[in-house]
Amino acid sequence: MATIRDVAKYAGVSTATVSRVLNKKDVVSEETLQKVTEAVEKLSYHPNLLARSLVQGKNDTIGVLLPSFDHPYWGEMAQRLDQAAKKRGYYLLFTEYSGKEEEKRKAFEYLVTRKVGGIIACCPLEKEAQERLRGEIRKVEMPLLSFVWVTDSFPQVIPDDRQGGLLAARHLLAKGCRNIVHVSGDLKMYKETNERTYAFVREIEKRGHTCIIYECPLYGTEKEELQEVVNKIFYEQPQMDGLFLSNDILAALSVSYALAQGIRVPEELRIIGYDDVWMSSFLYPPLTTIRQNYEKLSEQAIEKMIRMISGEPIEKKTVVPVELIERKTT
């Protein structure tokens, strides 16, 4: 692999001149610029970004802890985060933060040892995990931002899940639904983060109706397990006429199951998902869902992280509105 010395030797200039050309710090002659550019291309030279960041005291890489790589929601969010970062001259290093505690610890250490400028955590953290991670962050003096998941331990950028729950409840009630079922995340694990569930249930009860809740992990669950949850709901709640699910994957499985059983959607059963992943509008019938503003969430997260890296003060919490997208399942 070519080094900066190889480039300098090939171009017949000093390493300092090569550095000035690559970093665009000083004006050099057109002839020198051409020689260095030719040498870089000929030798396929790639700068050592880690070494450069250590010398300059600035790192343009941000680490991201994801709960899952294969879930459409996180695929969409990762892409938007990456786009927002590149607009600001930064790059992202992704790793999966799931599984056993030892695997999570290794994922965190992976980003720390890569000397990222800061970490965006897109994963749910229980109180004990928050305290543990806060202690580790203090040791390495690295900024951490909680993204999408609510936590009191770190600055956060989150969607307005309370608004999402209210929108879903009011929409089903307005459509005449009275036997309503909701599939939430694991309420024991996400007790502080499941505001959409609490808002949804409170609104249903405020109107004099009841809502039956089923719990299911939101992300990283095998399709067979999700299908089992859906099968159980339809078997145990044959009279339901409204169904609100905490993500679009569960909603898609529910639509498929209903149609396979001869249940007409939306005439006999109205279904609402959450997130508005790309496939939601391509289902048959197209899925009514609560849309998260991926672009705004991502831009806010990257902006706050860059400010944290620079040592600037930031707001503790940023809440981004959601919206109801009515399609053909309601």
Keywords:
330 residues, alpha/beta, 6-stranded parallel sheet, 6-stranded mixed sheet, 12 helices, 46% helix, elongated
Short description:
With 330 residues, this protein is an alpha/beta fold. It has 12 helices and 12 strands.
What does this structure look like?
It is a single chain. The chain is built from 12 helices and 12 strands. With about 325 residues, it is an alpha/beta fold. The chain has a 6-stranded parallel sheet, sandwiched between helices. β1 (about 60-65), α5 and β2 form a beta-alpha-beta unit. α5 crosses α12 (about 295-310). The termini are far apart.
Give the total of beta strands: 12
User: What is the H/E order?
Assistant: HHHHEHEHEHEEHEHEHEHEEHEE
- Helical content stands at 40-55%
Say what oligomer this is: single chain
Terminal CA distance:
59 Å
Rg on CA atoms, Å: 25 Å
The number of distinct helices, counting runs of at least 4 residues, comes to 12
How much is the average pLDDT?
A: 86
Strand content: 15-25%
Q: Give the strand order, joined by hyphens, for the main sheet.
A: 2-1-3-4-5-11
- Report the uncertain regions: none
Q: How are the SSEs placed, and which strands pair?
A:
Layout: H1 4-11, H2 15-23, H3 30-43, H4 49-56, E1 61-66, H5 72-87, E2 91-96, H6 101-113, E3 119-121, H7 127-140, E4 144-147, E5 156-159, H8 161-174, E6 180-184, H9 195-206, E7 211-215, H10 223-236, E8 242-245, H11 248-260, E9 270-275, E10 288-291, H12 294-309, E11 317-320, E12 323-325
Parallel strand pairs: 1-2, 1-3, 3-4, 4-5, 5-11, 6-7, 6-8, 8-9, 9-10
Antiparallel strand pairs: 10-12
Helix pairs in contact: 1-2, 1-3, 5-12, 8-9, 10-11
